[in-house]
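Entry 14. Ran structure prediction on the chain below.
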Amino acid sequence: MTPDLPAAAKLYLRPVQLADSPVNRDGEVVRLAGGLSWCSAFELIARENGKRVLQRTIAVADLPDDPRIAAILARITAPRAPLRLGERVVRLDQPQVMAILNRTPDSFSDAGTHMQDADAAASAGVDMAVAGAAILDIGGESTRPGAAEVWEGEEIERVVPVIRKLAAGGAAISIDTRRASVMSAALAAGAHIVNDVAALLYDPRALEVVVGAGCPVMLMHSPEPEKGPHGGEGYGDVLLDVYDWLEKRVDAVVAAGVDRAKILVDPGIGFGKSLADNLALINGLSLFHGLGCAIVFGASRKRMIGALGNEAPADQRLGGSLTLALKAADAGAQLIRVHDVFETVQALRVWRGLRDAALVAR
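Output, structure tokens:
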């Protein structure tokens, strides 16, 4: 039975009953963002005055004829355009690995590993690319809770020499920073993407830099990005609150002149969120396809894995990291940001093999 939809409510569609193939299911499933996941139903949610007033699972063929639903469905199913990054093209019709390369003395999982020598850091980046990373994400400021702020000049000195060396070799490079001056210096040195944990809200000039460069940008959610990535006082409904926040931010960046096809969204796992918040976001990850942007997922080695895994330290969280990476792949995430590149690439190749086999008509 088709539900009555409140006229004043905001509607959401979360793909559920995910499938690995559309074979012999014509009209029963829809493809998520042109990728390798399909769904046979949606969780239809209506929210009014901050509260869910409707929540029902509805088969694809039974979705109500409502222009609000049609608009969301069009964004969910639209293929995500490939990223053209210098000499490389990164396709977003399958999950890709984004490798974390930190030049910081105090990152939570690899503190100081690449600090001493830019040549060694660049060599580590080459190894990550050889292992299968599509993009190298280079950062010079730790965003772990309690990390000290870094002077922007020092941040530039940390990242630019590594970017220059890797760009000369043809690598696709992302700069992980909140600061406009670092973005500008990194892009001038050969970086191709800006990855901002503050969604271009920490530095007043950040949006201007991205618009001027015409580069892709990753917008991550955090509760109070102007202050830092780990503030906030909790959520009424974390999944819908984060979705609404990112939707507003995407609309603002599009209005400023950035093509939606060049915007990627990240729900910010572990940033100003409790364990319960993180689990709700991961279980509801497919909802974010409704924004019409590629999804970046970063949970590698994060504290939640230790919390669920007998307090394992950061360097002993590979199993949990792979579990979350595959969960994100199932949900249709396009970029999975990780420390353990070889192992994650291998896991995703096996995942892809299972998908390919499922696409063979039976």
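The radius of gyration is 20 Å. Will compare against last week's run tomorrow.
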